[in-house]
Each structure stands twice: as structure tokens, then as C-alpha cells.
Amino acid sequence: MAYISNALRQLVAARAQGLCEYCQTAQTIVIEMELDHIVPEAAGGATEADNLCLACISCNTFKSAYQTGIDPQTDEEVRLFNPRQQQWDEHFRWSENGSQIIGTIATGRATVARLQMNRSLAVQARQRWVQAGWHPPKTI
User: Fold this and answer.
1) DSSP-assigned letter for residue 26
2) Which residues contact 31 (CB under 8 A, 6 or more apart)?
3) What is the DSSP letter of 4?
4) pLDDT band at 140 (very low <50, low <70, confident <90, very high)
5) How far is residue 115 from each of residues 6, 75, 131, measured CA to CA in Å?
6) What is the pTM of this model?
7) 140 CB-near residues (< 8 Å, 6+ apart)
8) CB of 114 closer than 8 Å to CB of 63
9) Using one digit for the tens of pLDDT, what is the confidence trace for 8-21?
10) DSSP of 97-119, one letter per residue?
């Protein structure tokens, strides 16, 4: 794993406004975030601002070194959401009660599936966060 300077870490975190750039969970809720190489180092991805995003531990773990996922609607392999090149709200939306992330197009659906964004523990946590007024984020 490449060294990431504090300045670069701060830039990525500030750009993300303290939100996981995949599931939009606030850092103030989960406390610890990681930096994700959008194109993994193993696939030649550089350790530079344009290839890094802020990710919660869950999203970063499930994404691992994957760059693609299967769209459950079409069974086609598609590229995962890239927060440096794509807008979150063009690929995802929140369920009516704010507890689930719905992929609106193939990239979003494949990303939700690959990163297991709607696993039961995450949905249960979001339901509590909604009740507390902490979620969904207002900055999307």
C-alpha cells in the first residue's frame, strides 16, 4: 500500500464533506473512514487525488479491488460508481424512508450490490439514524 500524505488525506476528506462517497454515511456517525483507491493499486491505480475517495470501512471492504459488478436487473457486468467522474444523485436515490440506497441505473445497481449497501445491519442502522435526524445527509 502506497504512502498517503496527511495533506492528501485532508484534501480527500474535505472534498467528501465528511461523507462516504459510496453510501453517503457521515463520518460523524461511523467515526472512522478510509481512503479508497477507485482504481486499485493492484490494477495500476495511482495514489493521487483523482483516484482517491473517502469511504466507510464497510464500503471499502466490500469494494476491495473490484472495479466492476453485476447489475442485478440485467445480469450484465458494469463498472462501479466512480465518485471522481460521476455524480451520486445520477446513479442512486434514497428509499422513501431513507434507510435503503436504490440504484437508479446499471452502475448504481451494480455498486449497491457489490458493496452490499443494503445489508440488514446497514439498513437497521440507517433507520435509527433517520429517527435521530442524522440521516440521510443533506449535502448530496
Assistant:
1) B
2) none
3) -
4) very low
5) 27, 16, 24
6) 0.94
7) 24, 88, 89
8) yes
9) 999 999 999 999 99
10) TSS-EEE-SHHHHHHHHHTTTT-
